[in-house]
Amino acid sequence: MATIFKSFLNNDVAVTRTLLHEAIPLTGTIASGTYTADANIKNYAHGMFQSVYDYPYLSSSANHIFDVTVGFSANSNLSGTTHNSEAQQAKKINLYTQMAQILVGHDETGTVRDFDQDGDLSGGIKIKEAVFINFARLLGKDELKKGSFSATFLTGGTPGVRAPGNTNHTQPITINDSGAVNDYRVNSPAGEYGILYSATGSQVGLIYYQAGIVVLTGAVFGGDRKESGLGGGFGPPASGAYGPAINTSAAAYDISTNSSSYDAYMTGAAGSISGAADAVRNCLQSMAFNNTTELNSTIYFCRANHSEFNYSSNPSYLASSKLVVKNKTTDMPVSYITSVGLYSADNELLAVAKLSEPLKKTPTNELTLRVRLDY
Asked: Is pTM, for the whole model, over 0.85?
């Protein structure tokens, strides 16, 4: 324990912040459950969302990657009387409302706002039917890095080609938050968010960086719905729309031709939330982003002036009441600094920093030791 203490002055302490980034690539085989025969896809009794793991979720080494769910606004045409028989209609509305309440907030009347395509909450085109991808904290860390997100889906239709009957089911659609580094929104109660764009520049969703949530308009996955205001999304018109419609003739949900693909995707007796989540996953080709870890540091500059810390309180420093480092009485005192202790105002030891090698201290030199605490 130290017997001599020195207080820090204001210019002896500095606070810094460092952002560390890690690349997170996600392949479609993991999301679709192909390589584990869906053993890494967990469905719940409540049926309100679906979880994706990197290994079979019953394994002790499995890591939670993200959750997938869908929902639509009470203002959507899908919530009308036409679809009253739809499976889990109330849950889909509640999920949308919950997400909107957390990510968008309320208007001046206390009503939960709908998601807005361009972030202009006072107007603009609303995303009334949405797919939600919620990344696990393990991957997203403190936030997603702006401008780093990209996802490629196989929507089944060819962008820009309005040819009914086109059977190309492998056409990829790439979505990213291009330009978000300098163009992002801050009018969300959940923090900062950016606009997601297709390769052709269409606004197709939102990404909330601190929350780690991606919101995609359902029109991405079917070309026949126009109530989202996107002109039918990417696919051909209703007479030849493609999307991840529920294929009741197959054992799994996958991309299939359907003249009302988006209706079948979000509604219908078989249109459960887990079924829609299956469709989204089976359309995913790849997804990638960089996460961000915010490292806060306090740096202490421990200064030993020429007249300070030239003697040691170590018992071995003395022998027969004499300094062992001095041969003659005229020799200068000398000590060797091996560690630095940080103490509270009550002289309680809080932290110890060890030097890689002892530093010689005499009245003829001065030392400044830089101690950094990360948290």
From this structure: no
